[in-house]
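Feature request disguised as a bug: please show the residue count (355) next to Phosphoserine aminotransferase in the output. Example input:
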Amino acid sequence: MKKYNFNAGPSMLPREVIENTAKQILDFNGSGLSLMEISHRAKDFQPVVDETVALIKELLDIPEGYSVIFLGGGASLQFMQIPANFLIKKAGYVNTGTWAKKAMKEAKHFGETIEVASSADDNYCHLPKDFTIPADLDYLHITTNNTIFGTELRKDIDSPVPLIADMSSDILSRPVDVSKYDAIYAGCQKNMGMAGVTCVILKNDKLGRAPRELPTMIDYNTHVSKGSMFNTPPVVPIYSVLETMRWVKAHGGVKEMDKRAQERARIVYDEIDRNKLFKGTVAVEDRSVMNLCFVMNEEYKDLEKPFLDFATERGMVGIKGHRSVGGFRASCYNAQTLEGVNALVQCMKDFEAQH
Ligand code: PLP
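Example output, currently without the count:
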């Protein structure tokens, strides 16, 4: 049976990304060695890193003066690496959910950290509105897409202080004005490729200001100056990012990704709003187009498990909601297809017809 992958991450990737990466795993550039076996210093691998960086810069229209690096440790390591490198006296965080909170917790190891705004009181079902950003912050940290709660800030805000963003779950799904940010980071395992590598975009002239001795591996300058080759980089995951970037480019770039994401989300949200069994969990204006969260309406709560079973039998994978929201979450990253969302919607309609 055909499977439709709605996993939140690692998540669906374009088939050709998987096939092309698999080919290189079997025989890297006809060398007779696997991509898993080559030295990262091999002459054929440097072009992989160079092309990947060049494509990310091109696709996100990154201005001069920024570096793109690849690191291990996931986005979670960035929760500490960002404050280690950027927190001088005081950092501000917008608390929009689990990941934002985790980022804020790590910053506290490095200095004063304040919560500038929060929607915790409403179980993060909307983004905080109308808050003032204190002018004395070293930076303001935001999470542009809240993977668990399904809210998304789909614009680049104006900030009087340097802006830093965790874009793990929506990078490359829309055009971004990178010049508004001093740093952007993303675990690659959603819109950029497979798990095992994190992409960090840094404004060069903001580096090296931390008032503390940084361990070598934590200092961004180490990795910027060595082009992500200070130590052994995650070779296979970086290759998967290259293939994903080629795919995004071949499919029209981030403008087209944005258009497709809006269309998929409209189809699913329209059904959530129409179908008597379901309701969305997020304020309409803050709904994510990457992670679409919904629950059973009160009077149909008993049907939650039966719907999950019904959908699973029809090939839907990964639609169970995170335990902090319950219900369902359909993650629709760049590789998600119209066929996939239409299959989910048909499933919702057919289940409604039975009840
Ligand atoms: N930030 C966001 C928005 C995420 O969705 C995730 C993981 O899903 C993380 C951070 C943590 O990423 P990692 O598992 O790469 O540490």
